[in-house]
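Example A, followed by Example B.
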Amino acid sequence: MNNGNDNATPMECKFQLDPFACDLDGYIKADVIDLDTQQPSTIIDCNDGGIVRVEWGIRGPLAHHLCGEWCVCVYLESIGPGPEVVIPDSCRTYKWEACHDGPWVHEVRIPGGVDCGDCGKLYIVGVTLTSKDGCYHPGHIAAYCKGPTIMFYEGHPDPHG
């Protein structure tokens, strides 16, 4: 009985990766937004608080082939004696969609009532960013941003308010 395999030729298979420069890089930045003006500022009324806005992204030909999660955290470190600012919900994870072209954005509200001392107080904004791969194992991307130094001061009371 002939099953058709008597003259079978071994298959030859190939796998090709298009050659390209592996230009993959990323960026991260942080700003503090004044609630009154909705603009970046480094001097904030301690009674109002503000918003820390973090933006990051990945660029390059491999960016659309990556997936997993980002983990981003925001900190306010006081300069000199005094308590640190605890920001509610300062850490968050974001799903890393391979076709995501725009930047990722994380915003956290700095609550009003920050310690501004007698003559104003300085704080440094710090941001950490790490990745997890598609299987949620620690990834190969880590970044930080020592953001702006911001001054909290006690603003003049609103005469209309």
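Example B, a separate protein, is given below in the same form.
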Amino acid sequence: MFNLKKYIPIGLAVIIILLVLASYFFIFPKYQDYAVKKKELDIKDVDITAKEKYLPKLEIVAERLSEYANQISIVESALPFEPSIAALSNYFQKVMSQNGLILEGLDVSQLFIKSASEESSGNINNMLFSATAVGSYDSFKSLLLDIYLNARVIGVESFSLSSADDLLNYSINLKTQSYNMLINTIEE
């Protein structure tokens, strides 16, 4: 006759071994995936909580900045994000004609060329250009004053004068600035 009691310990051992193998190959990897996903979820939860706390601060700052909209627009026009050659040319034609000078030429070929020293200057581009004009000395002084009082950051690097009949010829080397196209993000 078949003695079942004799095979019970072997059956229990086989069942225990199968349970250990099943948990090692099936349950333990699922637990590891669960633990990783839980850590990712906890990190996302902390990130969301931090952003929820930061959002009211940003709203307060935005309200404060809206009070200074006029001043901010002046700064943005002084240091534009995207410098426009057409706007620069129009400005110089206008300011020279208002001061009684004739704009003969505007050389913008050096406008977007960076020197090695400017590569590390941060978020500001220095842009060089030159203008040639004809007119009286009083008109030239008035032009320099207008450039100095202009909201846009334009500096006179150098100028030269030459005489032709009753009028003077002026060659002016100027420098303006703009923000770099790639702006670093501001972090808290």
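On Example B: The chain has two domains: 1-67, 80-179.
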